[in-house]
Amino acid sequence: MSAVAKSDSAPRSQAEARVRGFARAAARLLENPLAAAGLAVVLALVAMAVFADTVSFHIPPNAQDLNARLLAPGAAHWFGTDDLGRDIYARVVHGARVTLSIVALVAAIVAPIGLAVGASAGYFGGIVDVVLMRITDIFLAFPRLVLALAFAAALGPGIENAVIAIALTAWPPYARIARAETVTIAKSDYVAAVVLQGAAASRILFRHIVPLCLSSVIVRLTLDMAGIILTAAGLGFLGLGAQPPTAEWGAMVAAGRDVVLEQWWVATIPGLAIFIVSLGFNLLGDGLRDVFDPRAS
Amino acid sequence: MSEPPLFEVEGLDVVYAGRDEATHAVRDVSFSLGRERLGIVGESGSGKSTTGRALLGLIASPGIVTARRLTFQGEDLRALDDRGWQAMRGRRLSMVMQDPKYSLNPVKRIGEQIMETFRLHNPGASREAKGRALAMLEAVRIRDPEAVFHRYPHQLSGGMGQRAMIAMMLIGEPDVLVADEPTSALDVTVQNEVLRILDDLVSARGMGLIFISHNLTIVSSFCDRVLVMYAGRVVETLDAKALDQARHPYTRALLAAAPSLDAPKAELSVVTRDPAWLA
Amino acid sequence: MSAAAKIAVEGLDVTFRGSGKPVYAVQDVSFEAAEGAAFGLVGESGSGKSTVLKAIAGLVAPSAGTIRIDGKPFGARRTPNERRAMQYVFQDPYGSLHPRQTVDRALREPLAIHRIADADSRIAVALDEVGLDARHRYRFPHQLSGGQRQRVAIARALILSPSLLLLDEPTSALDVSVQAEILNLLARLRKERSLTMIFVSHDLAVVAHVCETLAIMREGRIVERMPVDTLRTGEAVEAYSRELIAASRGYVRAAAK
C-alpha cells in the first residue's frame, strides 16, 4: 500500500501544492457537521462585524428614543429596545465588531509571543529554557480578572487596556505548547538534516520548527476564544471593557440586569450571542484538532 | 496425513472501505494448514499481516472479512461472535507479534501477564498459575525465570521480551501459532536463538505454525512450505526446500533482488512489476 | 594516518552523561577510508556504529579523539563550509523529510543556506539523478512511497556536492525490491561522483554488496577490521566476528524427527 497519489495529477508549482493541501484540509474539516456549524458561526460573526451597518439595516446602535424604552421584540425592533430606547438588534450586530476586534487583537499578540518564547526555550534548552519558562510561570500565576481590574485601576477602563490585560495572562499556555512540541521536533531527523546543511539556529527555529507548532497553537487559540470572549464580556459587565455608549455584549448584559425579570430580552439576547459565538469557536476548534491530528479519526 | 487440516481457507478476502475507493488488502487467498510450518512471505502491502490477523478475527471495522471457507479444526470462523473468539484465542489459536514493546502491557509485570493469560483459559486452576508461568519461562530458555517473572517489559532486552511474549502466547497450549514477523525487530544473533526456541516448542507440542515475514531466507530455512504474496494475492506456493525452483516471476525476482553474503552480485536485480500479476 | 586517506578517525570516544550513569557509547574507535572507497561499520544494536557516524557528522560531540577529513581536523562545531564537505542519509525515510515541506522546498533549502544560484535547474538535475521527475517535485512526503522518500533524501544529501557521504542504515526500513533499487542508485552515484562512503548497517549481506572494507563493532568498540572477502568466507579472526557472520547466514533447523 504505497502512499503514491494515484488519482490526482501532480501539482506544478509550490503555490499549487500549498493550495491543494489547504483545500484538502478544508474538505476534511467540512465533513464534520459540528465543525462546519462552528465555522459558519465564526464566519457569520466576521460578516456581521465587517458589514455591521448593512446587517443592521443602518439602524444607529446608539440612537436613543426615550418614548420607545423597553419595548418587547416585534416587527419594528426585532430584539426589542433597552432602557434608553436603543434598538437591541443593531447593538448586538455592532457589538460583534467589538467582540471580534478584542478576540483578533488578543490572538495577534499571544500567538507570536507564545511561539517565540516556547520554541526558543525548547530548542536552546539549558539556561535559556529555565529563564524563559520561569518568566512564563510568573505570568501564568496571575488571575486574569484580577489583573484586568488592576490595569483598569491604574490606566483607566477601555477596550485597549482590556485587551492588554487579557493578552498578558493568555500567552503562557501557548509558550508551553510551543516548547513541548519543539522539544520533540528538535530531535527529529529532518531537523538534523538542516543542521547538517549549515543552517543557523534562527533559521531552523523559524522556518522549520515553528511552522510545525502552528497547528497546535491554532487549535488552542480557537478553543481559547470562548474563554477570551467570556472574559471580555465579564470585563464589560464590570464596566472595565468597552465604555458606554459603545455596544458591547457583556456591558449590555450588565445593563439589562435590573430588568431581567420583566424585560428579559435586554440581558438575555446579548447573553445568547455570547453563548452562540463561544460555542461556535469551540466546535471549530474541535474540528480543527481532528483535521490536524489524523490519528484521531 | 490422516488427520483433517487444522486450517482450511478458501477465497479469503479482506476489504477496507475507504473515502474514495475500497482497498483490497487480501484477495482470494486459499490454503490449508496441517501440523506443519507454513511461511507467508511478501513485501509491505502484500497482505500477509492482514491475512494473519484475519485468521484470528482481529480485523476491525472498517475492514470486512469474507471467505468461501474459513474453518479451524472444522469450526466455521466466520460465524464466531465475540465470545466465540475469546474462547478460541490463546487457547486454541495464538499470535506472536513483532515488537514486544508494543504487545506486552507496559504497566504489568511479566509474571502477572502470563498468569493472567493462564487463568483466563483455565478458570478453575488459579493456584497453579504461578508454577505454570515459571515453567513456561523456563521452556523459553530464560535463565532466571524467577527474576524475569517480577520484571516489567521495559526492563527486558528485545530477545527476552520476545521470549516472554512467546511464553505468554503458548501457555494456553494452542494448536496453532501465528507468528507475525516475530524476529524482525531483533539482532541477528538473538534472532536465531528465538527461532531455535520456537522450533523446539512447535516440534515438541506438535503445533501448526504460520510464520509471516518479509525475509525469504529465514522463512525458507524455518518452514516446510511457503506462500508468496503480492498485492493481496498468493502468487506461488512451494516447498521451502525448493525455493530455487520457484516459477513465478515475482518470486524469482525477489530472490534475485536480495544481496547475498555468498555470491557477490555486480548489480542487484530490480523487480519489474508486471501488471499481469494483479490479474 | 596514511597520506591517501580521505577520512581518518583516531581514538574516538563518545560518552553520554545524562542523569544516570555515563553511557560509553563509543570507545577508542579508529579507522581510515581512502578517497572513493566505501567503508562499512557493522554491528548489532548498542554497538555504537550509528553514534560513530553522528560524531563524524558533527551531530554528537566526541569526548576524545580526532576526526580528520583530507588531513584537516574537524571539531564538534562546524562552519557552513565544513558542513558542505559531508552529508548524511538517515535510516527512516518517514522521518528524514520535513512533513510540511514539498520535495522542491526540501531541496531548495540547502541551496538557499549556501546562497547557491540557479536553484530551479539544480533541483531539476538533482531529482533526475535519483530517478525522480517533475511529478514528484511539488509533493509532500506523505504522498510519496518509502523508496521515493529515500531517493529525495539522497538527492538532498548530494545537492551540495559533498565528497563524503555518511549513510546510516539507508535501506533497513525498505522492502527488498526497493532496497535493490536504492543500492543500485547509490552504487551508480558513487562511481559518477567519486564519493567516499561510510555505510552503517546491521545487515552483513548489504554491507558485503556495498563496501570493500569494514569494521565489526560491539558495545562501543571495534572488534575487527576486515576486507569484504573475509566476510564472504567467514574466516574472521575474532570469535564474535565469526559468530556474527555465521548467524547472518540464516537459521539452521534442527533435524526433523
Keywords:
heterotrimer; A: 297 residues; mainly alpha; 12 helices; 71% helix; globular; disordered N terminus; B: 279 residues; alpha/beta; six-stranded mixed beta sheet; 23% strand
Question: Gist?
Answer:
The complex is a heterotrimer of chains A (297), B (279) and C (257). By secondary structure, chain B is an alpha/beta fold.
Descriptive account of the structure:
The complex is a heterotrimer of chains A (297), B (279) and C (257). With 297 residues, chain A is mainly alpha-helical. Chain A has a single domain, classed as MetI-like (MetI-like fold, Orthogonal Bundle), CATH 1.10.3720.10. With 279 residues, chain B is α/β, with parallel strands linked by helices. Chain B has 10 helices and 11 strands. Chain B has a 6-stranded mixed β-sheet with strand order 7-8-9-3-10-11, sandwiched between helices. In chain B, strands 1, 2, 4, 5 and 6 form a 5-stranded antiparallel β-sheet that branches. In chain B, strand 8, helix 8 and strand 9 form a beta-alpha-beta unit. In chain B, helix 4 runs parallel beside helix 7. The longest helix of chain B has 18 residues. Chain B is globular and about 60 Å long. Chain B starts with 6 loop residues before the first strand and ends in a 22-residue tail after the last helix. The mean pLDDT of chain B is 89. Chain C has 257 residues and is of the alpha/beta class. Chain C has one domain: P-loop containing nucleotide triphosphate hydrolases (Rossmann fold). Helix content of chain C is 37%, strand content 26%. Chain C has a 6-stranded mixed β-sheet, with helices on both faces. A 4-stranded antiparallel β-sheet of chain C has the order 2-1-4-5, with helices on one face. Chain C is globular. The mean pLDDT of chain C is 91. At the B-C interface, helix 8, helix 9 and helix 10 of B face helix 7, helix 8 and helix 10 of C.
